[in-house]
Structure formats: structure tokens, C-alpha cells
Amino acid sequence: MNWFTCKIYPQFWQDYVSHFKDRQEHDLNKVRFVVFDTETTGLDTKTDCILSIGCVAINDLKVKVSDYLEYYLKQEQFNSDTVKIHGLLKEGKLTKLEEKVAIIKFLDYVKNAVLVAHHAAFDIAMINASLKRMGLPRLKNKVLDTGHLFQKTKLDTSKLHYSLDELSERFKIPLHDRHTASGDAYITALLFLKIVSKLNQSQGLKLKDLLRPVNRRGLL
């Protein structure tokens, strides 16, 4: 049955949607942020697939290292060119989940949290592509991009886009486990908190201020 066409959605999707019934809290100390990253077979959101998902939560503007998610997905397609970046082989000894199972676990984990990522449009598009293959609508979560948030600081206006490496170096964040989904999620979480600290010097920052768009061009 095609859930999307018939508008009859499975219970896991109904459970996910139910978390959005309540009004979103705008006090940053009360918001649950989930910082996440995906490793993929490539950069084409239409044809490439997710290889791994890594998440870590932020509560009370602190990284909660015990509140995390990390899954590896079975590779239906294989791109040897990207192995040198993420190191994920088609077989190997890692326990891997079917795409559907991994996405269900992701939805159950994030619930209505505000999602945070670096170059977030790409990671969100990859999750949405997986949802589309499952016959489901797009993610409902609010999304923040650390690259866009950095632009709000006005610390450097010489470029439109900054890599995670560039901003990590600027804020003196060690690049531990770089190019793993969980490692990049943790690095991005530290970056997010440092940027928010810069923006919140007057202690009056709200979620709506972070969500307000900046003048920018391009998707990523």
C-alpha cells in the first residue's frame, strides 16, 4: 500500500507527527536540539543514498553525550570513490540496518526537536529522499544551519559559505572523528553552541531569532 497516495500513514509516522501538536518552546534553554549528520554515497540527493546517520542532543544549551544516535545503513549501491572520505565499506563488520528501519529509528529519536546541521539542506534532503521512497511526507522539524548562523555573527563577511573545517578552526574545535556521521554531529554541536554564545551576548536570544533567515544565495 502506498501510504502517501492513500493518506493512510503507518503508526510510527503518526507517532512522529503527534509530537508537533504542542507549541514550540522558544526559550533556548528549554529547546531540545538534535544535531545530526549523514554520510552518503555521494552528493546527488536524488540518486545517492545514506550510509550512516549520527545524532547528538542539546538540552539546556549543553551537549548531552548520553543522548545520541548512530546507525549504519546497508549499501544497496556502492561508490568506491567516497570510501576514502568516510571509510564505510559495502560489507565489513559493522551492523547495518535496512533504510526503512534506520529512518523509523531516526524519527523516533528526533521527535519534534529542532534539527541542526552544517550545510543542513543536504542532510535534510537526504532524509526526505528516504521518506519519499517510503511513501511518506517530508520532515516536519524546524531546521538550523550552522553555516547560516555563523553569518549572523558578522564575524566574517568575506564569504557566503564556510566549510565545517574552516569554522572549527576559527572556534578552535578539535576535528576528532571527522567524516564520520557521529563525529561530525558532535563537532557541529560544539560549533552550534559557540555560535549561539556569540549571538546571545545580550542574553535575550530566542529560537525565532535563530530561525530568522539571513540574506544568502544558493541552497547550501
Notes on the structure:
The chain is built from nine helices and six strands. The chain is of the alpha/beta class and 220 residues long. The protein has a single domain (33-207), classed as 2-Layer Sandwich (Nucleotidyltransferase, domain 5). Strands 4-3-2-1-5-6 form a six-stranded mixed sheet, with helices on both faces. Strand 2 and strand 3 (62-73) form a beta hairpin. Helix 6 packs parallel to helix 8 (181-199). The longest helix has 19 residues, at 181-199.
Features:
6-stranded mixed beta sheet; alpha/beta; 220 residues; 38% helix; Nucleotidyltransferase, domain 5
Instruction: Output the CATH homologous superfamily.
Output: Ribonuclease H-like superfamily/Ribonuclease H
Could you give a short account of the major beta sheet?
6 strands, mixed
Going by CATH, the architecture would be 2-Layer Sandwich
Helix content: 25-40%
Secondary-structure map with pairings?
Layout: H1 3-6, H2 11-18, E1 33-40, E2 50-59, E3 62-73, H3 80-86, E4 96-97, H4 99-110, E5 114-117, H5 120-133, E6 143-145, H6 146-153, H7 164-170, H8 181-199, H9 207-211
Parallel strand pairs: 1-5, 3-4, 5-6
Antiparallel strand pairs: 1-2, 2-3
Helix pairs in contact: 6-8
Question: How do you describe this structure in short?
Answer:
By secondary structure, this protein is α/β, with parallel strands linked by helices. 38% of the residues lie in helices and 18% in strands.
